Each structure stands twice: as structure tokens, then as C-alpha cells.
Amino acid sequence: MNRETVVTEALALLDEVGLETVSTRRLAKRLGVEQPSLYYHFRTKKDLLAAMAEAAMAPHAAAPLPSPADDWRAWFLENSRSFRRTLLQRRDGARLHAGSTPTGDLDRIRHKMAFLVDSGVPEREAQMAMLAAGRYTVGCVLEEQADSGPKEDLPADVPAIDREAAFEAGLALILGGLLLRTAPTGSEVPPEPER
Fold first, then answer.
1. pLDDT tens digit string along 99-137?
2. Phi–psi pair at 44, nearest 5 degrees
3. Are 60 and 151 in contact (CB under 8 A)?
């Protein structure tokens, strides 16, 4: 048993039982070991959850980094979409991620920020837009993953929410606000990139 095996099995347990029910006792039983042996790899449950959150982000962390030739607007949208897809791959993925610190991803974050700044987005606006888009995405996925299905108690004239369309609409508003903040005074805001 190594650290990677523990995290892999912990994520599998998460997918089976949900975040509320993941415990070191259950994980030890799943691994066929005594609970104290987990503390060799993770001193606390918080440490284990942080490692799980980092591992769960692997698909997003493996996405190609932006290159100077990329349109920053299209990249900004796709980066948020990739983040959403990754969060949705795990049961309670957004809850697992919420509040985690991306310490293993700092070089990638720096690269993304430099790309936005080099593309003409002021640094402060780039930071705030990335933060807003990230928190917006986590919030959308939290709602989506908490949804237990059709709401039978809603009146018939209340339309069902298309989660992806709603996410895209909100993301477009964030990008639109960023475009307004980055457009030179008196100039027209360029149209958003096509999907």
C-alpha cells in the first residue's frame, strides 16, 4: 500500500458513498488494513481530503496550457468548462474541491495568469476574473450535484433548468464583464468568441 493507492481507493469510496460518509475507518476496511496504518501516509483526514481533491483535479490539470497564439476569450471560456467537467466526474466533486488550496497547481496558475496579462488583460482584472469564474463554476456544480432529480412540487409552468445552458449563460456574463473592464475607453467591446 502506497500513498497513490490510498488516494485512488479513497476516490473510489467517495464515488460509492459520497463525501459525508467517507471516513478513514471505511477506507481502512476497503484497503484491508488497520485504520492507524493510514496515518503513515496521511496524518489527518484533512490531509487525505486535500490529496483526494488534488487527484480529482488531474483531468483539468492535464488540459493543455494556453499558448500565445490562443484567443484569450475562447481560452477563458474553455478553461472554466474544463474545470466544470472535471468537478462533475466525481460524486461530490465540487464539495471535495471547495476550500482546497491548489498548491500542486501553482505553476499552471501562474502560466494562465501570465497568458491573460500578456494578452492585454490587466493583472488585477485577470486575477478577479479567474477567481470569479472558479467560484462560479464550483457553485454551479455544487447546485447540480445536490440536485436530487425532478422537482415534483414545482408548478407546471416553472420550466426545468438546463444546467449546461445556465452555466454557459453565467459564464458569458463573467466574460462580458471582463471585456467591459479591459476595453479601452471609448472603444467597442469585441464580440465573444464562438463556442
1. 787 666 789 999 999 999 999 999 999 999 999 999 999
2. -135, 165
3. no
Dihedral (CA of 12, 17, 19, 25) sign: negative
In CATH terms, the fold of domain 3-55 is Arc Repressor Mutant, subunit A (1.10.10)
Q: Residue 125 is placed in which grid cell?
A: 482584472
CATH fold, domain 58-182, is Tetracycline Repressor; domain 2 (1.10.357)
Cβ pair 103, 160 in contact under 8 A: no
123, 113 Cβ separation under 8 angstroms = yes
Q: In which residue are the cell numbers 425532478 written?
A: 150
Q: Where are the domains of the chain?
A: 3-55, 58-182
Rounded to whole angstroms, how far apart are CA atoms 40 and 32? 15
Candidates 24, 25, 27; CA nearest to 16 is: 27
- Per-residue model confidence as pLDDT tens digits over 162-173: 899 999 999 999
Long-range contacts of 103-107 (CB under 8 A, 24+ apart): 103/54, 104/54, 104/61, 105/54, 105/57, 105/61
Nearest to 7 by CA among 34, 30, 149, 20: 30
Q: Would 3-55 and 58-182 be classified into the same CATH topology?
A: no
170: Cα within 13 Å, side-chain hemisphere: 18
